[in-house]
Amino acid sequence: MEPRLPDAVAAIMAEGIEDVTIVPVFTGQGGHLLRDLPLLAEGLRTAHPGLRLSVAGAVGEDPGVLAAMTDYCVRSLG
């Protein structure tokens, strides 16, 4: 997807923003979150030594999000 995360981080750092939180909008801890995202985050930290980067858990593992998904499913039943 565009913009790619490294490009987006570089752009906001150019604006003076040094605190970045990545919020993965995935329903669970799959391959992208377990393998790809840690490598990407490490690359960002290497490329931008002043970057304070944090990575939130998968959005679909949050109890509030799970409750909202359950509510949606129940409402869909009519």
Strand order of the largest sheet: 1-2
Estimate the mean pLDDT confidence: 93
For this structure, the quaternary state is single chain
Low-confidence stretches: none
Architecture, according to CATH?
A: 3-Layer(aba) Sandwich
Biggest beta-sheet profile: 2 strands, parallel
Strand content: 5-15%
Q: Could you tell me how far the N terminus lies from the C terminus, measured between alpha carbons in angstroms?
A: 35 Å
Number of strands: 2
Our count of helices gives 3
Kindly report the CATH topology. Answer: Rossmann fold
- Name the helicity range: 40-55%
**Computed structural class:** mainly alpha
Output the radius of gyration: 16 Å
User: What is the overall silhouette?
Assistant: elongated
H/E series: HEHEH
Q: In the CATH hierarchy, what is the class? A: Alpha Beta
Structure description:
This protein has helices at 5-14, 31-47, 63-76, and strands at residues 19-22, 52-55. Strand 1, helix 2 (31-47) and strand 2 (52-55) form a beta-alpha-beta unit. 53% of the residues lie in helices and 10% in strands. By secondary structure, the protein is mainly alpha-helical. It has a two-stranded parallel ribbon. The chain has one domain: Rossmann fold, CATH 3.40.50.1400. The chain has three helices and two strands, in the order H-E-H-E-H.
List keywords for this structure.
78 residues, Rossmann fold, 2 strands, 53% helix, 10% strand
